[in-house]
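User: Design a sequence. Structure:
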């Protein structure tokens, strides 16, 4: 986490535009099965493991990650840094009620909010127009709480248009901050069972992603491990 925050602040200061991404088991599966997804992830300036299963897999496969860096925790630390360094932020995603509540919370922390918008702008204007609105607000940081792969593709396609120093994908973090959903207890997070907690909260939406996606993730990890043992190339 400390390394990721330090790197994020370096990127904000270098004057260019950058994309952040977190990967979990489902996103790893998508990257294995799609050249486009893999390329989008690989081109991001910061890639964090937002899933304990990814950390465990990295250790099994001989390229160990030091720890999990959850998107919501990364966002929390960046907001603290933004308040100290007078960095402005734009909040994009979730429902209108949720993003409005998150904006109030962020302002209460002493962070300058350049603007905010819910994740349903397509009923009003195009993706490019949304990106232009963000550019006009001129934020240093953009937090994007949209589903995957929507947020990764949107950031990839309109990073230059938005012209923010760092765009951070935070998934369902806005819903958690607004109290719409709840994070798993710490012990479940440490055991890598946060997915089970979310499945219990949203069984219809999460069933395919977790039960089917996690099974494919285990298959790909074991396949890679077997290839590594045989001296074959990574995937």
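Assistant: Done.
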């Amino acid at each position: 986490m400390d390394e990721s925050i330090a790197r994020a602040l370096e990127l904000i200061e270098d004057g260019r535009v950058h994309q952040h991404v977190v990967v979990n088991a489902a996103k790893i599966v998508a990257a294995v099965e799609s050249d486009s997804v893999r390329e989008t992830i690989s081109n991001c300036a910061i890639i964090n493991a937002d899933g304990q299963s990814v950390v465990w897999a990295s250790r099994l496969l001989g390229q160990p990650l030091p720890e999990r860096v959850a998107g919501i925790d990364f966002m929390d630390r960046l907001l603290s840094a933004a308040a100290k360094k007078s960095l402005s932020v734009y909040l994009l995603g979730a429902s209108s009620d949720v993003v409005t509540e998150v904006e109030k919370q962020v302002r209460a922390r002493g962070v300058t909010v350049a603007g905010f918008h819910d994740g349903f702008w397509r009923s009003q204007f195009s993706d490019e127009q949304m990106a232009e609105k963000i550019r006009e607000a001129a934020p240093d940081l953009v937090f994007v709480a949209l589903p995957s792969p929507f947020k990764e593709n949107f950031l990839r396609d309109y990073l230059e248009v938005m012209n923010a120093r760092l765009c951070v994908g935070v998934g369902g973090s806005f819903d958690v901050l607004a109290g719409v959903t709840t994070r798993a207890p710490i012990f479940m997070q440490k055991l890598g069972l946060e997915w089970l907690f979310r499945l219990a909260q949203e069984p219809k939406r999460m069933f395919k992603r977790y039960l089917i996606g996690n099974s494919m993730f285990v298959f790909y990890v074991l396949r890679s491990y077997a290839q590594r043992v045989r001296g074959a190339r990574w995937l």
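Residues 203-229 form the longest helix (27 residues). The radius of gyration is 18 Å.
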